[in-house]
Design brief:
The chain is α+β, with helices and mostly antiparallel strands. The chain contains four helices and six strands, in the order H-H-E-E-H-E-E-H-E-E. The chain has helices at about 10-20, 20-25, 55-75, 110-120; strands at about 30, 35-40, 80-95, 100-105, 125-135, 140-150. A six-stranded antiparallel beta sheet has the order 1-2-4-5-6-3. Helix 1 crosses helix 3. The protein is elongated. It starts with 7 loop residues before the first helix and ends with a strand.
Length: about 150
């Protein structure tokens, strides 16, 4: 496997620039590596639900954004020939969250396998698993997002 040449700071800045809702929620990029992304939703009253915790929609956006960050980090070198698109998402809210929350996203299969399918002329699909935790480490939600790399039409 080749060494990744992805500029992870550029990925974070690119997502902030191209996805206005990331800026609206003030999502923070805590960690971005080839194998995982961690984003943080700060505790803002404007993002609260009726019981004072982060709104379910804000948590969904946090997790989906973390999944998008790992997709760009893993497949940024494929963007000239394919567009990453979310196909499906499912979230389970497990515990009431309070305060800031963190979403950790990981690819569900090796990036090389996905690229091999793209090389073979297929439109690969792959799952990203996301765990949302409060700052004490308690898991408050789990999400999966199925992504595809849609080849550009030539």
């Amino acid at each position: 496997m080749t060494e990744s040449t992805t500029d992870f700071d550029a990925v974070a800045e690119g997502l902030r620039a191209s996805v206005p809702f990331v800026r609206t929620l003030g999502l923070e990029f805590v960690e971005l590596a080839a194998d995982r992304a961690v984003l943080r939703l700060p505790d803002e009253p404007a993002h609260h639900n009726h019981i004072g915790g982060p709104h379910a929609g804000a948590m969904f956006t946090l997790a989906e954004s973390a999944s998008g960050a790992i997709v760009i980090a893993a497949f940024g070198d494929q963007l000239a020939r394919a567009t990453p698109l979310a196909v499906d998402a499912a979230i389970r809210y497990l515990k009431v969250a309070h305060g800031p929350v963190l979403a950790e996203a990981r690819l569900g299969r090796p990036a090389a396998d996905v690229v091999a399918e793209l090389d073979a002329g297929k439109r690969p699909e792959f799952v990203v698993a996301i765990t949302i935790r409060d700052e004490a480490g308690t898991i408050t939600a789990e999400m999966t997002v199925t992504w595809t790399l849609r080849p550009h039409r030539g």
